[in-house]
Specification:
Layout lengths: L2 H7 L3 H14 L4 H13 L3 H14 L4 H11 L4 H14 L3 H14 L3 H17 L3 H14 L4 H14 L2 H14 L5 H11 L3 H7 L3 H10 L3 H10 L1 H4 L3 H13 L3 H14 L5 H13 L2 H14 L3 H14 L4 H13 L3 H14 L4 H13 L3 H14 L4 H16 L3 H9 L6
Helix pairs in contact: 1-2, 2-3, 3-4, 4-5, 5-6, 6-7, 6-8, 7-8, 8-9, 9-10, 10-11, 11-12, 12-13, 12-14, 13-14, 14-15, 14-17, 15-17, 17-18, 18-19, 19-20, 20-21, 21-22, 22-23, 23-24, 24-25, 25-26
């Protein structure tokens, strides 16, 4: 126990407070130390000091519940704006979103002027957005724009929300207003991206600041060689960025240079292996090549990466129509069906897998497991015997073989009752 703690334990609060303040020189961002100082400041009725310490805690650790609670108590009768703002924050942290919104509204009402109300308005708008009340969020950001006109974030948020509610054109109009009326030059590159997505590459090219965006716009305009020339000119600068390789893949794709396109996609994958775009690009190339099997395989992978497993399953089943002997595909379909809870259909594909690959351990194990689950113990043993031939030390066998074999040979329930009556005269 250090001196400050000993003094505090002895209720020598003024001296303990002074000692803790000395420690602050070495540990200015120590939340535990700040908490002790805040606590002692309240005991010593140094309310202004307590405000400083608890506010510092929230700078370092924004979700800190204790600091919120102490500041709420301090401001309850002193500053209703800060009281409701902090209480709204606390309720948001506690996932009480409706109460948090109500508190932020009250904070806005208690602000001394529109400028002071801005933090509460931003928080209120953010909660509306989080609850999917996008039009309400838009209304709040529009109010914010009247008082925080020099903040580009307002226009960026409005553009994002307008895209979701009204489409790209409304988003573009908002950003153009910010660029032209408020002088936000940084919006030019952002707008270029919006124009590309809105199939307006000429506008995108005019505003683009990045060479990569210019190249993308040129490709979309059909000026492939001009775009390629730009990319080659900045190869050293951007060769480690995934967008560079996706643009080169696009160029080669449009030139029907498929081998080169695949190589660029491979480079992209080295940088970001979890991007769905990898499989989208490959699917488009296979489609152009007329390879329906690999096209649908890659659309399946694309949708798995996006979390759209139902769509992915349909793509894989379509691929199966073009090749019903691909082991990886059959295993993937079976696993997706099993994950969806359709064990009967999954078992059919595991049986197909066992037909195509008779020594497939996973297939044999899954079929045995399914057969046992529906009471077909003889069927389970049949597949377990096959599994035993190729993998006698298999853990599933060790855990289940003797038990299932015993049930198959001796029966259970009513069958066991009959055996007790008729003994060996009853065959199983």
């Amino acid at each position: 126990m250090n001196l400050a703690e000993q003094l505090e334990q002895d209720e020598k609060y003024e001296e303990a407070y002074a000692e803790y303040k000395k420690q602050m020189v070495q540990k200015p961002a120590d939340v535990e130390l700040l908490t002790k100082l805040g606590h002692l400041a309240l005991i010593l009725e140094k309310k202004e000091d307590a405000k400083i310490y608890y506010a510092k805690i929230l700078e370092i650790d924004p979700p800190n519940i204790l600091a919120h609670e102490q500041l709420i108590d301090i401001f309850m009768h002193e500053d209703r704006f800060k009281y409701y703002l902090l209480r709204g924050n606390l309720r948001a942290l506690q996932q009480q979103m409706s109460h948090a919104k109500s508190d932020f509204k009250k904070a806005i009402d208690h602000a001394k002027d529109p400028q002071e109300a801005l933090p509460a308005r931003y928080l209120y708008a953010g909660l509306c957005e989080g609850q999917g009340r996008l039009n309400e969020a838009i209304d709040e950001y529009l109010r914010i724009s009247d008082y925080d006109e020099k903040n580009p974030v307002v226009f960026l948020k409005l553009a994002e929300l307008y895209e979701k509610t009204e489409g790209l054109v409304a988003a573009i109009q908002t950003l153009e207003r910010g660029r032209k009326d408020r002088g936000f030059k940084d919006f030019e590159e952002i707008l270029a991206g919006y124009y590309i997505r809105n199939s307006q590459p000429e506008k995108a090219y005019e505003l683009a600041q990045s060479e990569l965006t210019k190249a993308r716009a040129l490709f979309d305009m059909g000026r492939n060689d001009a775009g390629y020339e730009i990319l080659m000119g900045v190869k050293d600068k951007y060769s480690k960025e995934k967008i560079f390789h996706s643009l080169l893949a696009q160029y080669y794709f449009q030139k029907d240079m498929f081998e080169e396109a695949f190589k660029e996609i491979d480079e992209y994958e080295k940088i970001d292996s979890k991007s769905p775009l990898i499989y989208q690009m490959r699917a488009l190339i296979y489609e152009k090549q007329g390879d329906a099997f690999n096209e649908h395989i890659n659309w399946g992978k694309y949708n798995v990466m996006r979390g759209e497993k139902d769509v992915a399953l349909n793509e894989y089943l379509t691929a199966y129509r073009f090749n019903d002997k691909d082991v990886d595909l059959i295993e993937t379909i079976a696993a997706l069906l099993e994950a969806e809870g359709d064990k009967t259909k999954a078992s059919e594909f595991y049986e197909r897998l066992a037909d195509v690959d008779p020594k497939n351990r996973l297939a044999l194990e899954k079929i045995a497991e399914f057969r046992e689950s529906i009471g077909d113990n003889y069927g389970a043993i049949e597949y377990m015997e096959r599994l035993k031939e190729i993998d006698p030390r298999n853990q599933f066998l060790q855990d289940n073989y003797e038990k299932i074999k015993s049930i198959a040979e001796n029966g259970t329930g009513f069958l066991q009752f009959l055996k007790k009556i008729f003994g060996n005269k009853m065959s199983v």
